[in-house]
Amino acid sequence: MDAQVDLLTDKEIEDRLAELPGWSVTDGSLTRTYTFERHLPAAAMVIHVAQIQEELNHHSELTLGYNTLTVAVNTHSAGHAVTALDFTLAHRIEEIATGHGAS
Protein backbone atom coordinates (compact mmCIF):
# COMPACT_ATOMS: atom_id res chain seq x y z
CA MET A 1 0.00 0.00 0.00
CA ASP A 2 1.16 3.57 -0.72
CA ALA A 3 2.63 5.39 2.31
CA GLN A 4 -0.14 7.99 1.98
CA VAL A 5 -2.85 5.35 2.40
CA ASP A 6 -1.21 3.09 4.98
CA LEU A 7 -3.35 2.65 8.05
CA LEU A 8 -2.39 4.82 11.02
CA THR A 9 -2.26 3.62 14.60
CA ASP A 10 -4.44 5.32 17.22
CA LYS A 11 -1.29 7.02 18.56
CA GLU A 12 -0.34 8.31 15.09
CA ILE A 13 -3.85 9.68 14.62
CA GLU A 14 -3.75 11.31 18.06
CA ASP A 15 -0.35 12.90 17.32
CA ARG A 16 -1.52 14.22 13.95
CA LEU A 17 -4.73 15.60 15.44
CA ALA A 18 -2.61 17.63 17.88
CA GLU A 19 -1.31 19.53 14.82
CA LEU A 20 -4.84 20.29 13.58
CA PRO A 21 -6.87 22.23 16.17
CA GLY A 22 -10.59 21.93 15.51
CA TRP A 23 -10.30 18.58 13.74
CA SER A 24 -11.42 15.28 15.26
CA VAL A 25 -12.17 11.73 14.23
CA THR A 26 -15.92 11.28 14.25
CA ASP A 27 -17.77 8.22 12.94
CA GLY A 28 -14.58 6.95 11.29
CA SER A 29 -13.79 10.18 9.42
CA LEU A 30 -11.40 13.06 9.98
CA THR A 31 -13.84 15.93 10.50
CA ARG A 32 -14.03 19.67 11.05
CA THR A 33 -16.78 22.28 10.85
CA TYR A 34 -15.82 25.80 9.84
CA THR A 35 -17.95 28.85 10.62
CA PHE A 36 -18.21 32.01 8.48
CA GLU A 37 -19.86 35.41 8.87
CA ARG A 38 -22.06 34.82 5.81
CA HIS A 39 -23.04 32.21 3.25
CA LEU A 40 -20.96 33.39 0.28
CA PRO A 41 -17.53 32.89 1.91
CA ALA A 42 -18.57 29.37 2.94
CA ALA A 43 -19.68 28.59 -0.61
CA ALA A 44 -16.46 30.03 -2.04
CA MET A 45 -14.41 27.80 0.25
CA VAL A 46 -16.27 24.75 -1.11
CA ILE A 47 -14.93 25.55 -4.58
CA HIS A 48 -11.40 26.06 -3.25
CA VAL A 49 -11.52 22.77 -1.32
CA ALA A 50 -12.81 21.03 -4.45
CA GLN A 51 -9.78 22.31 -6.38
CA ILE A 52 -7.42 20.91 -3.74
CA GLN A 53 -9.25 17.59 -3.75
CA GLU A 54 -8.89 17.32 -7.51
CA GLU A 55 -5.18 18.09 -7.24
CA LEU A 56 -4.72 15.37 -4.59
CA ASN A 57 -7.21 13.00 -6.27
CA HIS A 58 -8.71 12.54 -2.82
CA HIS A 59 -12.22 13.72 -2.03
CA SER A 60 -14.09 14.43 1.17
CA GLU A 61 -17.74 14.82 2.02
CA LEU A 62 -18.53 18.55 2.12
CA THR A 63 -21.69 19.78 3.82
CA LEU A 64 -22.53 23.43 3.16
CA GLY A 65 -24.86 25.22 5.54
CA TYR A 66 -25.84 28.89 5.63
CA ASN A 67 -22.60 29.97 7.31
CA THR A 68 -20.90 26.63 7.93
CA LEU A 69 -18.87 24.11 6.00
CA THR A 70 -18.31 20.63 7.40
CA VAL A 71 -15.53 18.48 5.97
CA ALA A 72 -15.45 14.71 6.63
CA VAL A 73 -12.86 12.49 5.01
CA ASN A 74 -11.54 8.95 5.16
CA THR A 75 -9.75 6.79 2.61
CA HIS A 76 -12.11 4.50 0.73
CA SER A 77 -9.27 2.40 -0.72
CA ALA A 78 -8.06 1.67 2.83
CA GLY A 79 -11.39 0.32 4.00
CA HIS A 80 -12.75 3.77 4.92
CA ALA A 81 -10.00 4.24 7.51
CA VAL A 82 -8.27 7.50 8.40
CA THR A 83 -4.88 7.62 6.67
CA ALA A 84 -1.99 10.03 6.10
CA LEU A 85 -3.70 11.14 2.89
CA ASP A 86 -6.66 12.41 4.91
CA PHE A 87 -4.31 14.43 7.08
CA THR A 88 -2.59 15.83 3.98
CA LEU A 89 -5.96 17.05 2.73
CA ALA A 90 -6.85 18.49 6.15
CA HIS A 91 -3.58 20.45 6.30
CA ARG A 92 -4.16 21.83 2.81
CA ILE A 93 -7.68 22.92 3.80
CA GLU A 94 -6.32 24.59 6.93
CA GLU A 95 -3.88 26.58 4.77
CA ILE A 96 -6.76 28.24 2.88
CA ALA A 97 -9.40 28.48 5.61
CA THR A 98 -8.41 31.83 7.17
CA GLY A 99 -8.26 33.41 3.71
CA HIS A 100 -11.97 32.63 3.40
CA GLY A 101 -12.73 34.06 6.83
CA ALA A 102 -13.30 30.64 8.39
CA SER A 103 -13.06 30.07 12.11
Automatic annotation (TrEMBL):
EC id: 4.2.1.96
Transmembrane segments: none
Catalysed reactions, semicolon-separated: (4aS,6R)-4a-hydroxy-L-erythro-5,6,7,8-tetrahydrobiopterin = (6R)-L-erythro-6,7-dihydrobiopterin + H2O
InterPro entries: PCD_sf (IPR036428), Pterin_deHydtase (IPR001533)
One GO-annotated biological process of the protein: tetrahydrobiopterin biosynthetic process
Entry superkingdom: Bacteria
Signal sequence region: none
Ubl conjugation among keywords: no
Any one GO molecular-function label of the UniProt entry: 4-alpha-hydroxytetrahydrobiopterin dehydratase activity
Presence of the UniProt keyword Transferase in the record: no
Keyword annotations from UniProtKB, A to Z: Lyase
Family according to the record: Belongs to the pterin-4-alpha-carbinolamine dehydratase family.
Name of the protein: Putative pterin-4-alpha-carbinolamine dehydratase
Organism this protein belongs to: Streptomyces chrestomyceticus JCM 4735
The organism's taxonomic lineage, starting at the top: Bacteria, Bacillati, Actinomycetota, Actinomycetes, Kitasatosporales
